[in-house]
Design a protein that fits this description.
mainly alpha; two-stranded parallel sheet; 19 helices; 6 strands
């Protein structure tokens, strides 16, 4: 059992206790971050005269060889080691001898793991943001192609007013824009470096924490060593943001599931992104959307787990905080996979424009516009509301939509109706006259798309805009 401690102990740790305590099975994915932080630390130690140039060169060379051997498969990370830190340090000492024992000067596993986790979360935020950006580009394309695709808008899952597919999908574009904004906020707020905080009270060695922070792409070092090692706010914030992403995807999934049903028939999911039934040959199931909807609860659970873990922990580091990783890793993996699969499904999905328009016509989504027609001809709105209510009831009895009623039938309801009512309640008119920004009119949507185009051409949170360190690897 390779451990970084033991001098104070007179007997071996019980094997079951060791395994219960170990984190190597999951924190092994932090090997790159651990090596990157260790290289930066060794470079700083040499700069400050704490180790020699020769020792630093040997450490850096040894760490890079460990990285290369892990990546080419010649070195396996096994449960012989308690955690990723002991794996890296033990292998370094084995390769370069006593110089490797000096790497840990001026740091603790507490600030080391805090650094590794921050480096990992920071890079994953960029990956998630990149996926959200790609999804926005797909939505933009579909919106641009469907400015005149009429469909019913819903409230209470009841057909309410006519909109366009572009307008409907624009709501999800806005959700993703807020999701990306949250990613940026978290990134900027967490971008401080805990390395050099030690176990909780800093160190007597003359470390240059600003130098290591700069090498690793952080804005500055953290300002309180106790908070440095016990802060997991950024993990909690990310879990909350990822839960919101999943909530948005789940809402979209629910709509795709409804739209894919025989009763709606608004969309046809590509064969590559749907499955069949083992017994019912006619079935084409929206499994991707259903799985995304289902996995949302999984991500919510990880948020609640980390909140519950952190709620009663006194300063500074406690072993409870080892529980920050598995849930975060799984939530990050789940969200990335869900975004990828869902956006590919949307990208290949066919929208049945004729069915959407017919559904809007038959759902009396132009009833509000019919009432507005009467108001513009002098009728008080409350009276107009009552008249159109009676008109809808008559249409239901006759099995007709409002625009299928003859002028004689309309006049039996109210003699205010004239021939121009048909133009006033057409889907085209109902949509096109809603010209305020945020509305579904094609002219209004074109202005929105111009804004989206500028936004997508200059992504405000792209990797190339940030100093991520990484060159030292």
């Amino acid at each position: 059992m390779a451990q970084l401690w033991g001098g104070r102990f007179t007997k071996e740790t019980d094997r079951n206790v060791y395994l219960f305590n170990a984190s190597i099975d999951f924190d092994k994915r932090l090997y790159l971050q651990d090596i990157e932080g260790s290289i930066a630390h060794s470079i700083m130690l040499e700069k400050q005269g704490i180790i020699t140039l020769e020792e630093k060169d040997a450490i850096v060379k040894g760490l890079r060889s460990i990285r290369d051997d892990v990546e080419n498969g010649s070195l396996e990370i096994t449960d012989e080691y308690e955690d990723i830190h002991s794996f890296v340090e033990a292998n370094l000492i084995q390769r370069i001898g006593d110089a490797g024992k000096k790497l840990h000067t001026g740091r603790s596993r507490n600030d080391q793991v805090a650094l590794d986790m921050k480096l990992y979360v920071r890079s994953e935020i960029l990956e998630i943001d990149s996926l959200l950006y790609e999804f926005q580009k797909i939505l933009y394309r579909v919106m641009e192609e469907n400015l005149d695709t009429f469909m019913p808008g819903f409230t209470h899952l009841q057909k309410a007013q006519p909109v366009t597919l572009a307008h409907h999908l624009g709501a999800y574009f806005e959700m993703l824009r807020r999701d990306r904004s949250r990613m940026k906020d978290i990134y900027q707020r967490m971008n401080t470096c805990p390395l050099g905080a030690g176990a909780l009270a800093g160190t007597t060695y003359p470390l240059d924490r600003s130098y290591t922070a700069s090498m690793l792409g952080f804005e500055m070092p953290t300002f309180n060593s106790m908070d440095s090692v016990s802060d997991r706010d950024y993990v909690i914030e990310l879990m909350a943001a990822l839960s919101t992403v999943m909530m948005h995807l789940s809402r979209f999934s629910e709509e795709v599931i409804l739209w894919n049903s025989n009763e709606y028939g608004f969309v046809e999911i590509d064969d590559a992104y749907s499955t069949g039934s083992s017994i019912m040959p006619q079935k084409k199931n929206p499994d991707i959307a259903e799985l995304v909807r289902g996995k949302t609860g999984r991500v919510y659970g990880h948020l609640m787990a980390i909140l519950t873990t952190m709620k009663g922990i006194p300063l500074a580091y406690n072993k409870d905080m080892q529980e920050d990783k598995e849930g975060a890793f799984d939530a990050i993996d789940t969200v990335k996979e869900c975004i990828t699969m869902f956006m590919q499904m949307v990208d290949t999905m066919k929208f049945r424009k004729d069915v959407m328009k017919d559904s809007a016509n038959k759902g009396f989504t132009n009833a509000t516009d019919a009432a507005d027609y009467l108001v513009k001809r002098g009728m008080p709105f409350r009276d107009a509301h009552s008249v159109i209510g009676r008109l809808v009831l008559t249409c239901l009895e006759k099995g007709k939509s409002i625009d299928e009623m003859t002028i004689e039938e309309l006049k039996e309801i109210s003699d205010v109706f004239e021939e121009d009512v048909y133009d006033a309640v057409s889907m085209k008119t109902c949509v096109e006259k809603r010209l305020t920004i945020g509305g579904p009119a094609p002219e209004a949507m074109k202005k929105v798309l111009e804004n989206y185009e500028k936004y997508l051409k200059e992504p405000f949170f792209a990797k190339e805009n940030y100093n991520l360190g990484g060159d030292i690897l």
